[in-house]
Amino acid sequence: MPFAQIHMIQGRTEEQKRAVLEKVTQALVEATGAPRESVRVWIQEIPKDCWGIAGQSAKDLGR
Taking the alpha carbons of 26, 3, 52, 59 in that order, is the dihedral positive or negative? Predict the structure, then answer.
């Protein structure tokens, strides 16, 4: 069973997350030949103040 874990900064819309789930699933099906039903994708959203970029939080950088 292929399993993909995606880390993203919070703030994506539900529609954007659905698109990620669909496209990552399709990529794993194509790359591994696994049945679609066995693919698992986990999106973990990280608060902007907990995501560091070059020593600053994404929140402080306005991301």
Answer: positive
